[in-house]
Amino acid sequence: MSVLNLAGFLARSEVNGPGIRAVLWVQGCPRRCEGCFNPQFQPFSPATVTSVPTLAKTILSLEGIDGVTFSGGEPFAQAGPLAELGATLRNAGLSVITYSGYTAEDLAEGDDPAWPALLAATDLLIAGPFIASRARPDSLTGSANQQVIALGTRLSAGRQDTFGSRTEFTIAPDGSITATGFPEPSLVRQIRAQLRGT
């Protein structure tokens, strides 16, 4: 049975692609981009290990979502299980967005046999490493070098600036807070200052 090592899961988001989307972040990334938004997701260490069928059932039970977004960590480090999950979700009518720190050329030339399967299960690919000196947060990308590539007909690679706020805070019943999206640098500075009490 295929399993995924998840760093996080969010049942509903409006800032991780067009429409309302479930979002899953995988644990582990070999890219180590300087200024990474999720450095805690880089180590290849056990986090929340779940089977693909269980996760598919959870996502397909969510009402009113338009698709799912795979992020990380590095999704292509777990390409096989994500390809299986993505194919199941797409067959059920949901769209799939996949983020990767690899460039489109890296993914096309890679020798991992699971990479083409994940690309085939992806409707919209956001490819390329985060480069802090080229930071230009918009609706889908964190830096200007990243490419937005349509791999299917369900989602357009055109600008997606119309699908909502760039930052979203979700408070779970246990009080934990998930922040996602691409916040304005001024918001990040303000939150850091308040946490430091300055």
In terms of per-residue confidence, which ranges show pLDDT below 50 for 5 or more consecutive residues? Answer: 161-165
The second-level CATH architecture is Alpha-Beta Barrel
Number of DSSP strand runs? 9
The average pLDDT value, as a whole number, equals 87
**Tally of contiguous helical segments:** 5
Instruction: Kindly provide the name of the CATH class.
Output: Alpha Beta
In CATH, the topology is named TIM Barrel
**Secondary-structure element series:** EEEHEHEHHEEEEH
Distance between the termini: 50 Å
The main sheet orders its strands as: 3-1-2-4-5-6-7
Largest sheet report:
7 strands, mixed
Helical percent range?
10-25%
**Beta-strand content estimate:** 25-35%
Please give a handful of descriptors for the protein shown:
198 residues; alpha/beta; seven-stranded mixed β-sheet; TIM Barrel; single chain; two-stranded antiparallel ribbon
Quick synopsis:
The protein is an alpha/beta fold and 198 residues long. Helix content is 24%, strand content 26%. Helix 2 links the parallel strand 4 and strand 5.
What do these coordinates show?
This protein is of the alpha/beta class and 198 residues long. A hairpin with a 5-residue loop joins strand 8 (167-171) and strand 9. The protein has helices spanning 52-60, 79-91, 104-109, 114-120, 185-196; strands at 3-13, 21-26, 48-51, 67-72, 95-100, 124-127, 147-150, 167-171, 177-181. It has a single domain, classed as Alpha-Beta Barrel (TIM Barrel), CATH 3.20.20.
